[in-house]
Amino acid sequence: MALKSSKRDEGTVNKKLSNFLLAYRNTPQGTTNETPAKLFEDNNMELYFRLQEGQEYERNRPTVDSFWVALTTCVLGLQPEMYTDESKLLAQPGPCDIDIRDASDLSQKEFLERYAYSEPVVIRGATDNKYFQDLCRKDAMLKKHGSKRIRLSSANTYSYAKSDVTLQKYVDEIMKPQTLEKLGNETFYWFGDNNYTEWDEVLSAYKPPPYKLPGLVGAYSFGMAGAGTGVPFHFHGPGFGEVVFGRKRWFMYPPEQTPVFHPDQTTLQWLHEEFPLLDKSDLPLQCTIHKGELIYFPDRWWHGTLNIDTSVFISTFLGAV
Ligand SMILES: O=C(O)CCC(=O)C(=O)O
């Protein structure tokens, strides 16, 4: 009930979270008929926090802190260590003018007829990637893979400079929220160039989008990046993007409508500087996708991305065998 009412709230994530938590604290629970506030007061409630798929539930007598952490993690699907303070975000989710479809209502046949060769689509509920998400948690990633070397690419359109660093160094020193001053060619972004052998344990846990294009097979590009980062407009073959954690805003133009942008400008700079000047007829299609959602981009469609939060993401690029 508290979750339902918080969904109707207008405003920032922080405001929604506060309203939800307030409503939750004061809503009697089905099993005990008491509110969490009362139970905390009496110190007689024990919570079982589910930490990882396939792992035992961990029994905790909750402190107020663990209560907040559990709520943000389990109920709202946010990862506390990935959560960027709303006041520090330089971009917000925008409207969505791309079709949003539920996978239960989108057959392979309709995907092929309506979207595959003609327009983007956002698809919800296509796969259950909970286990993969658990492997991608920042703490789990650093513990298991922190010493692995990853290849970063500069976040500009054409001249992809590369830099090899350990994952630990990337997370500690490079993966920062983007600033408006920093250019794309000065920003290093972990996306793609994944060593499939080294990352097999993680990548093979990913359940790919179930929709197919005849004659094409998928190849993965996986990454993690700070709030406000993204890849400026570019195009290539068709594929899917999925958000594993965080939120990602996508901007798209059909192949015949080349966007106005400077290739070294970040998507964030473009959003602040160019986007407000666009005529209505020059506006891109856009949508912000959330954890577990897919976006499909058809062949040669221009797309630029903007991570609203610190995000983990994976694309499935479709190409000939
Ligand atoms: O996820 C991103 O930020 C980049 C994705 C992208 O541009 C792509 O999949 O082609």
Could you characterize what this model shows?
- The structure is a single chain.
- The chain has about 325 residues and is an alpha+beta fold.
- The chain has two domains: about 1-75, no CATH class; about 90-320, Jelly Rolls (Sandwich).
- Helices cover about 25% and strands about 25% of the residues.
- It contains ten helices and 14 strands.
- The protein starts with a helix and ends with a strand.
- It binds 2-oxoglutaric acid.
In short:
The protein is of the alpha+beta class and 321 residues long. It has ten helices and 14 strands.
By DSSP, the count of extended strands is 14
Number of helices: 10
Order of helices and strands: HHHEEHEHEHHEEHEHEEEHEEEE
Beginning-to-end CA distance, first to last residue: 49 Å
Shape: globular
Say which CATH homologous superfamily of the largest domain is assigned: Cupin
What share of the residues lie within helices? 10-25%
The helix/strand class is: alpha+beta
Number of domains: 2
Radius of gyration: 21 Å
CATH class of the largest domain: Mainly Beta
Strand order of the largest sheet: 3-4-12-9-14-8-7-5-6
Q: Ligands in the structure?
A: 2-oxoglutaric acid
* CATH topology type of the largest domain: Jelly Rolls
